[in-house]
């Protein structure tokens, strides 16, 4: 129990302390809160390139040298496509005696308004809220209700400055804070708009700041921190208002640094919905990690999920590299020992861990794919504005999933570190049937062997509607290894019009870069003539005037249309049978044209296809309908990619020549595979 005198005394102490901590937080403990405004605004006039129209912007908040909160507004520059940041706008502190000491944490509240929270010199949490009508205005300070306990020493008892976290959770904002106490505990409060619940003590006796993540699988939050036992502990929320006790995370936990908080990354996408991976800095200087292995709907002693074992991230950083690695290879040294790790993921959903090296450059260790091996540490670099003077804030871009690191430079500016990536084409306009060279450059951690390029009608957002495609190695079949920097030359036989070229990731229908081309001199022949010409090109018989040898081209078109319809209806066996029937017409035409060798090889393929499709039992084709449809010929060539491309050309665009090319080339690939196999058997 404190006497009123004690209270007075401690507030007096805080007063002097806030003076003493005027320079707090130390530059390299500082971390910005970065959040995209969902409400457009007319940017402040200080903004470079600002007009008077409302635009989308990114808000970057920092705690200043003067222990105030400051905002810099980032808007996209139309010409450079770079985000340009305004000068810092000072938002002050709750009062002349209540100064800002923690790093800010921001989240979306009701109606998409941003709330930004800080812990102040009196140990309490205050926030500012975005004005819906003037979205760059954050004016009035509000205090979260109730009173957090504070020990003598106040801010000096904090180790890091990431003492506050804010998350959007179930339509509310959940705020977590670490008390300024010798035995510091984690507290939480939730709020709807400006109505927050009183603080609830989650205990802990924290040595480090806590990391709180939302697990989309359980729908609940998970907190991680190093406690006074020196170990990474976790605390899982198991009901809206119930948390499990703090528990040491994993068995046989290695020794950890007790100044750097663990970080956690919840994977929120697709099949691995909601598995968390936790990273912590080991006492040996290596990055340690552990991850959830299975998640279930039933709470168990490990929350909703079970955990694997702690491991090192191979080739990790070290405080004394020569001791750890025994050779003089240049390895990064950390800039500090407090809250040094940050996480994110790349476009293939491999996890990444970031840290700032001693000379103010950003480094990372990374997985190429989810659950893949770890690479690095690799130097990423510095922002254009210069040396990094803060901890990084990692943001994921909402469309492609690329990461970006936001930092404060030693000169006090907002800096962005991202990797170079681009997609370009050799020409902006091309004649149908001529060559187009597509070039790209993606960072190594963002390049997978099954990345691909797709051609689309401009504005068609459905990535399954590709009209032509190439894997990054140039063919229609994905092969290792990845091609971070490369180009592919492709002839396009599409009709007149505007088309998009998209770079898509890892056999998935998820695009990350787009460029465009306009096609002129499109084919004007009759549809069936286009189809046969296309098939001849696909077969590598471009010079052959195949249309002279065709009996009833219109009938062939109908047969193909029925084939595509069957595939669309997911009647794959019927589709394969109809494909055989349609290709029968091509065999007949080739025979007429005395292209005997191709005709025979194709006929053999068609026979194989027909018997396979009718008997539904075959050695040559493997049909995998479980995830995305895949149909493999002789276990070595995937044919559905071309089938879908051909179908899209017929269906969406009546682009019969391009459709024919897709048919011709997949058939040729199969014949080639077949020939090779036969040869192996014979000789
Ligand atoms: C602003 O962002 C919203 C949501 O991301 C988007 O729909 C809108 O097109 C953007 N507006 C501008 C002018 O970029
Ligand atoms: C801190 O405050 C002083 C006095 O008001 C001012 O001169 C200085 O520019 C401020 N520093 C920052 C980083 O805002
Ligand atoms: C930027 O581009 C958008 C659309 O392309 C346009 O509406 C806007 O006026 C441009 N802004 C400036 C400042 O040029
Ligand atoms: C959210 O927006 C709705 C509709 O404009 C408004 O009625 C409501 O008061 C807003 N809520 C808050 C908390 O501002
Ligand atoms: C961190 O560990 C050191 C010893 O390694 C110990 O002296 C110190 O008290 C620990 N800090 C906390 C907050 O537990
Ligand atoms: C920073 O240090 C790394 C090695 O630790 C070095 O490769 C890099 O060039 C340095 N960057 C600058 C800008 O000095
Ligand atoms: C793409 O990025 C690479 C690497 O940064 C660069 O050398 C190249 O000039 C860029 N190409 C284009 C078209 O911007
Ligand atoms: C397109 O490029 C390929 C090689 O990349 C070449 O063999 C072919 O002749 C070119 N076609 C045209 C029409 O230029
Ligand atoms: C194919 O033959 C027809 C009929 O003789 C002719 O009109 C057409 O120009 C020829 N096409 C090509 C590409 O040689
Ligand atoms: C067939 O064999 C030849 C020569 O060995 C090779 O170049 C070609 O790539 C093979 N084709 C296929 C489709 O495997």
UniProtKB/TrEMBL annotation:
It comes from the Eukaryota. Residues 170-320 form the PLL-like beta propeller domain. The keyword Ribosomal protein does not apply. Residues 1-22 form the signal peptide. Keywords: Signal. SUPFAM superfamilies: Fucose-specific lectin. CDD domains: PLL_lectin, SctA-like. It holds the Pfam family DUF8189. This is Uncharacterized protein LOC118414010.
């Amino acid at each position: 129990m404190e006497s009123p005198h004690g209270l007075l005394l401690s507030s007096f102490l805080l007063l002097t302390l806030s003076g003493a901590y005027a320079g707090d937080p130390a530059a390299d403990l500082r971390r910005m809160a970065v959040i995209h405004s969902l409400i457009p605004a007319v940017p402040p006039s200080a903004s470079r390139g600002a007009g008077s129209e409302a635009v989308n912007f990114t808000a970057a908040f920092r705690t200043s040298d003067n222990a105030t909160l400051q905002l810099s507004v980032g808007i996209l520059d139309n010409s450079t496509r770079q985000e340009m940041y305004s000068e810092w706008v000072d938002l002050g502190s709750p009062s002349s005696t209540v100064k800002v000491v923690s790093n800010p944490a921001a989240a979306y509240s009701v109606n998409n308004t941003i709330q930004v929270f800080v812990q102040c010199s009196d140990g309490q949490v205050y926030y500012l809220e975005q004005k819906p009508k003037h979205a760059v205005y954050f004016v009035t300070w509000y205090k979260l209700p109730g009173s957090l306990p504070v020990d003598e020493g106040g801010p000096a008892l904090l180790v890091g400055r990431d003492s506050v976290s804010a998350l959007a959770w179930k339509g509310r904002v959940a705020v977590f804070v670490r008390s300024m106490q010798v035995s510091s505990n984690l507290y939480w409060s939730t709020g709807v708009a400006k109505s927050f619940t009183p603080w609830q003590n989650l205990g802990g006796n924290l040595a480090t700041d806590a990391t709180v993540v939302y697990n989309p699988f359980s729908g609940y939050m998970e907190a991680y921190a190093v406690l006074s036992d020196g170990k990474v502990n976790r605390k899982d929320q198991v009901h809206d208002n119930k948390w499990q006790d703090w528990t040491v995370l994993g068995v046989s936990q290695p020794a950890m640094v007790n100044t750097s908080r663990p970080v956690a990354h919840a994977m929120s996408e697709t099949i691995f919905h909601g598995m968390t991976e936790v990273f912590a800095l080991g006492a040996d200087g290596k990055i340690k990690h552990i991850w959830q292995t299975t998640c279930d709907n039933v709470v168990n002693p490990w929350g909703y999920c079970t955990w694997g074992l702690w491991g090192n991230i191979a080739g990790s950083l070290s405080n004394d590299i020569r001791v750890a690695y025994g050779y003089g290879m240049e390895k990064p040294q950390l800039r500090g020992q407090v809250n040094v790790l940050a996480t994110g993921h790349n476009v293939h959903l491999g996890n990444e861990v970031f840290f700032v090296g001693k000379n103010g450059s950003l480094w990372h260790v990374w997985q190429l794919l989810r659950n893949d091996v770890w690479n690095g540490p690799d130097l990423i670099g510095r922002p254009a504005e210069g040396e990094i003077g803060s901890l990084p804030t990692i943001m994921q871009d909402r469309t492609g999933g690329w990461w970006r690191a936001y930092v404060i430079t030693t000169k006090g500016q907002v800096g962005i570190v991202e990797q170079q990536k681009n997609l370009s084409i050799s020409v902006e306009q091309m004649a149908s049937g001529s060559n187009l060279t597509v070039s790209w450059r993606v960072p190594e951690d963002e390049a997978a062997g099954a990345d691909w390029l797709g051609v689309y009608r401009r504005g068609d957002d459905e990535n399954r509607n590709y009209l032509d495609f190439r894997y990054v190695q140039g063919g229609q079949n994905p092969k290792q290894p990845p091609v971070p920097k490369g180009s592919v030359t492709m002839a396009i036989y599409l009709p007149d019009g505007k088309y998009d070229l998209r770079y898509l990731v890892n056999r998935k229908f998820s695009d990350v870069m787009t460029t465009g081309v306009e096609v002129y001199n499109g084919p004007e022949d009759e549809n069936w003539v286009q189809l046969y010409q296309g098939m001849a090109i696909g077969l590598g018989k471009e010079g052959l005037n195949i249309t002279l040898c065709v009996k009833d081209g219109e009938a062939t078109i109908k047969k193909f249309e029925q084939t595509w319809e069957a595939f669309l209806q997911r009647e794959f066996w019927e589709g394969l049978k109809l494909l055989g029937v349609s290709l029968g017409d091509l065999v007949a035409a080739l025979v007429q044209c005395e292209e005997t060798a191709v005709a025979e090889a194709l006929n053999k393929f068609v026979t194989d296809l027909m018997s396979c499709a009718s008997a539904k039992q075959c050695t040559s084709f493997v049909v995998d309908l479980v995830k995305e449809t895949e149909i493999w010929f002789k276990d070595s060539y995937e044919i559905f990619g071309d089938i879908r491309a051909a179908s899209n050309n017929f269906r969406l665009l009546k682009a019969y020549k391009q459709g024919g090319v897709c048919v011709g080339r997949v058939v040729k690939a199969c014949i080639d595979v077949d020939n090779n196999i036969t040869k192996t058997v014979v000789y």
